[in-house]
Write a structure and sequence with these properties.
Elements: H1 16-28, E1 33-36, E2 48-50, E3 71-73, E4 82-84, E5 88-90, H2 100-113, E6 117-118, H3 126-131, E7 135-139, H4 148-153, E8 156-160, E9 172-173, H5 180-186, E10 194-195, H6 206-219, E11 226-231, H7 235-244, E12 249-253, E13 259-263, H8 264-269, H9 274-287, E14 295-299, H10 305-313, E15 318-321, H11 323-329, H12 337-342, H13 367-370, H14 375-399, E16 413-415, H15 418-424
């Protein structure tokens, strides 16, 4: 029964979560650090729908007609472009952020599916190179673990200029995750917090990037495709400049992309969503007459075959997954609840990758925890997930009448919200209206 008092009404400007964060900041005097990706709701692939064939289009029969999924990356300059069986790759996640078991499981799964995996910061481990048939080696601003021998042992090189979770900022690896092995690979002291640089030490602009790309080509005898990875912010300009600098492939990471550890304020408030970033990147490539000549890999919030199909329809050549791959390995699985509680988290809502106390053994260097992830079982789970994603994108492409997933196009899409229609530049469902355009025009 009511006692006659009015029901308390939280402030829209200062809801309970904001009050809690102000109180925490006042108590601790330091910003919050966490892993994973943005939690805020942003326009995403969920706001787009695919237009399956009916009378005006002719669908393909799934049991009798092929729908191919292969993609070739690095066709612009590299002597040895990469040929993948599926357009889903594994994003860079470092040894240090992840344990050796997780890196090995990812490499095994990628090999089984005929796709590539990526080293991340901190160098190349033997387990990763041995388990990965196709391995992309990252060159980051920190240059941790970088050496010419590993550049030559890689199948492609990815110059990381920015990440979607923190464009303009560097990463973190807290001291509890810097074991003797991690420290040796990165040339760091054991147990001391490490903050990666936010920019490369030997260039200050796109002209210097061109010099660095040429240097990497010379080191590898022009064999390896050179990728340039940018965090989605000023996407049109960044993609155009990466192409001008000589990149074979542009990797575009939207703000839904995850991270092992950075400031929460970065994750939630810097960068733009993946949805508008793809459209801007494709427009930049088209303006330069380089679409499909310089391949575009999109990452940041890819979770299903539907997401893959929509990204390809908007003009991407492939996608890359990081957080979803970790979830497939067991991240946030509802097991070991007491260990989640010990770090102040719950299964299904854990973002404590930075602590090194991962209850399921993925983002940890603690042997007892890491033993919970068996590389063979982890590889099997991730392979299953990648296989499901591939079947889903094939099913959707066939429904749109496509014999290859790369034949998906913007005409196969409609938007469910005005915001998504404006960002992706596809019509609002049931209309020919694109916000910001005229009628059905772009």
């Amino acid at each position: 029964m009511s006692d006659g008092r009015p029901t308390p009404r939280p402030s829209a400007t200062f809801p309970p979560a904001v009050l809690d964060e102000i109180h925490r900041a006042a108590d601790q005097g330091i910003y919050e650090i966490r892993g994973f990706g943005a939690k805020r709701r942003v326009p995403s692939f969920d706001d787009l729908i695919l237009l399956g064939a009916s009378v005006s289009r002719y669908p393909l029969e799934g049991y009798r007609e092929r729908c191919d999924t292969d993609v070739t990356l690095g066709t612009r300059y590299a002597k040895r472009p990469i040929s993948l069986k599926i357009p889903i790759t594994i994003a860079g996640m470092s040894f240090g952020a992840l344990g050796a078991h997780a890196k090995e499981a990812i490499g095994r799964a990628a090999t089984l599916m005929g796709t590539s995996t990526t080293t991340g910061d901190g160098g190349m481990t033997p387990e990763e190179r041995e388990s990965s048939e196709t391995l992309v080696y990252q060159v980051l601003p920190s240059r941790y673990g970088l050496n010419p021998d590993d550049l030559r042992r890689a199948d492609a090189i990815e110059v990381v200029i920015g990440q979607g979770a923190k464009p303009g900022g560097g990463g973190m690896l807290l001291g509890q995750k810097i074991t003797e092995r991690v420290a040796e690979m990165r040339d760091l002291p054991v147990g001391i917090d490490q903050r990666s640089a936010c920019r490369h030490p030997d260039w200050t602009g796109p002209d210097d990037l061109a010099i660095k790309i040429l240097e990497l080509r010379e080191i590898t005898d022009w064999e390896k495709p050179i990728y340039a990875k940018v965090g989605a912010s000023r996407t049109r300009y960044d993609v155009a400049l990466a192409v001008k600098a000589g990149a074979d492939v542009v990797v575009l990471d939207g703000m839904q992309g995850g991270t092992a550890a950075t400031q929460d304020v970065f994750i939630e408030h810097v960068g733009i969503p993946t949805l508008p970033a793809i459209r801007q990147a494709v427009e930049a490539l088209m303006e330069l007459d380089m679409h499909r000549k310089v391949q575009l890999i999109v990452s940041g919030g890819i979770r299903s075959g539907a997401d893959v199909a929509k990204a390809l329809a908007l003009g991407a050549d492939a996608v890359s997954i990081g957080s979803a791959a970790m979830v497939a390995l067991g991240c946030n699985q509802n097991v070991h609840a007491e260990d989640y509680h010990a770090i102040g988290a719950e299964p299904g809502a854990c973002h404590h990758c930075h602590t090194g106390r991962c209850p399921v053994g993925i983002t940890t260097q603690i042997p007892e925890l890491e033993a919970r992830l068996d590389p063979e079982q982890g590889a099997r789970r991730l392979r299953n997930y990648l296989n499901v994603m591939t079947m889903e994108v094939q099913t959707l492409a066939r429904a749109c009448g496509k014999s290859h997933v790369l034949n998906l196009e913007p005409e196969d899409l409609a938007a469910m919200t005005v915001e998504a229609a404006a960002m992706a530049k596809v019509p609002l469902a049931g209309t020919d209206w694109i916000p910001g355009g005229f009628g059905g025009d772009y």
